[in-house]
Design brief:
The complex is a heterodimer of chains A (169) and B (173). Chain A is an alpha/beta fold. Chain A contains five helices and five strands. Chain A has one domain. The radius of gyration of chain A is 20 Å and the shape is globular. Helices cover 37% and strands 35% of the residues of chain B. The chains are: A alpha/beta (169), B alpha+beta (173). Chains A and B meet through helix 3 of A and helix 1 and helix 3 of B.
Chain lengths: 169, 173
C-alpha cells in the first residue's frame, strides 16, 4: 500500500437511517477484522454505537466525510447527500486486503462544516474516554485558518531571509 | 396489459416509499436546523429520534400526517412563544422533481426573530387524521396558549407524492 488517502463514499439520497446504520456497521466491523484488532468489551460497544452517532450527524447533513487513519495510512469516506441518478455507495475494502499485520491504532475523524453544533449533537457520546488504540475526533472541514497559514508562510520567509543575511555576513 | 399495470404499480410504490423517506429525513433536517438557529438544544431530537421516526414513517405512509409543529414553550411552561408549523400535501400524481427543504431560509428568518429568553424548551406536536395509527411514545395533547403577532412562510419542498410548507408564527411575550 502506498502512503496516500484512499477515497470511498457513502450515498445517502433517499435512503432510510437504518440503511445508513447497517452499511456503516458492516463497514466498521469489516475494518476491525482487516485490522486484526482484538477488541476489549468497551471498544466493541463503542464501535457498535458509532453508526448511531454518525446518523445523528447525517440527519442535519453536517457530516461531510469521515476519515479512518491507521499506521500512517488513511481512508476517507465522503458522505454524498444529493447523489447523481446512478451514483452508488463505494465501501469496498478489498484494497486493504494486503494488510497482514495487526494495526496498532485507529483514529476516526468526523469531518464537519459545523464542529460546534456537531459537538452539541453527539455530546458525551463521543467524548467518553476510550482506549489508546481507538479514538474518535471531530475535525473542521475548513481545516487550518488560511490567515494563519499565510502568517506562518511569512514567518518562514522572514526566517529564510534572516538566515540568508546571516550567511552573507 | 396486465404486465404494464403491474410495472406501473411497482414504480408508484417505489416513488411513494421514496417520498416518505425524503420527507421524514427532511423533517429531521429542518428540526435540527430550526433548533440550532433558535439557540435550542438538539437533545430532544436526538433522545426521541426513534419515537419521532416511527411516527413520521407510519403517518406519512398512510397519508394521515396533516401537520407538524415545533412549539417553543416559555420558561414557566405556560404558553408558546413561537411556533414553526409544517403542513403536508399529498398528491396521487407524483412530481419527480426534488425540492430541497428551506434550510437556508430558516437561517435567514431566524436572524430576524427576537432572541428567545433563557430557559425555553420545545416539543414536537403533530396533527393527524382521526384514523391514524397509534404509535408507541406519542400521546394526545393540546397546543399551549399562543398569542400570535406575526407570520411568515417559506418555500415548499418535497418529492414524489408528499410536499410540505413551513410557516413561522411569532408570538408575544
Amino acid at each position: 500500500m502506498e502512503n496516500e488517502t484512499i477515497r470511498k463514499k457513502l450515498v445517502i439520497g433517499m435512503t432510510r437511517r437504518r440503511d445508513w446504520e447497517e452499511k456503516l456497521s458492516s463497514f466498521l466491523h469489516e475494518l476491525i477484522e482487516i485490522f486484526k484488532l482484538e477488541l476489549a468489551d468497551e471498544e466493541r460497544i463503542f464501535i457498535c454505537r458509532l453508526p448511531t452517532i454518525f446518523a445523528n450527524l447525517i440527519y442535519p447533513e453536517i457530516l461531510d466525510s469521515f476519515r479512518v487513519e491507521f499506521d500512517g495510512e488513511g481512508l476517507e469516506i465522503d458522505v454524498v447527500y444529493d447523489p447523481e441518478e446512478e451514483e452508488e455507495d463505494d465501501l469496498d475494502l478489498s484494497v486493504l486486503s494486503v494488510i497482514d499485520w495487526e494495526i496498532q491504532s485507529v483514529r476516526i475523524c468526523l469531518v464537519t462544516d459545523d464542529p460546534e453544533y456537531a459537538r452539541k449533537i453527539i455530546g458525551q457520546r463521543l467524548e467518553e474516554p476510550l482506549s489508546q488504540r481507538i479514538n474518535v475526533h471531530l475535525e473542521d472541514i475548513s481545516g487550518p485558518d488560511p490567515e494563519l497559514i499565510e502568517e506562518e508562510a511569512e514567518q518562514d520567509n522572514d526566517a529564510e531571509t534572516n538566515q540568508n543575511v546571516e550567511e552573507e555576513l | 396489459m396486465a404486465t404494464i399495470t403491474k410495472q406501473r404499480v411497482g414504480v408508484t410504490v417505489n416513488v411513494m416509499e421514496k417520498s416518505v423517506t425524503y420527507m421524514s429525513n427532511s423533517l429531521f433536517q429542518l428540526g435540527f436546523k430550526i433548533t440550532k438557529e433558535r439557540g435550542l438544544s438538539p437533545d430532544y431530537l436526538v433522545d426521541n429520534r426513534d419515537i419521532l421516526e416511527r411516527g413520521f414513517f407510519t403517518w406519512l405512509s398512510e397519508q394521515s400526517l396533516l401537520s407538524l409543529h415545533v412549539e417553543i414553550i416559555s420558561p414557566d411552561g405556560k404558553k408558546a412563544l413561537e411556533r414553526w408549523d409544517l403542513k403536508f400535501d399529498y398528491s396521487a400524481e407524483p412530481d419527480m422533481r426534488v425540492q430541497k427543504p428551506p434550510v437556508e431560509e430558516v437561517k435567514e428568518v431566524s436572524r430576524r426573530l427576537r432572541t428567545l429568553p433563557e430557559g425555553v424548551t420545545y416539543r414536537i406536536v403533530v396533527e393527524t387524521k382521526p384514523d391514524a395509527s397509534d404509535i408507541e411514545g406519542w400521546y394526545e395533547t393540546d397546543f399551549f396558549p399562543f398569542s400570535q403577532t406575526n407570520e411568515s412562510s417559506l418555500p415548499g419542498w418535497g418529492f414524489g407524492n408528499i410536499f410540505g410548507k413551513l410557516l413561522i408564527r411569532e408570538g408575544s411575550w
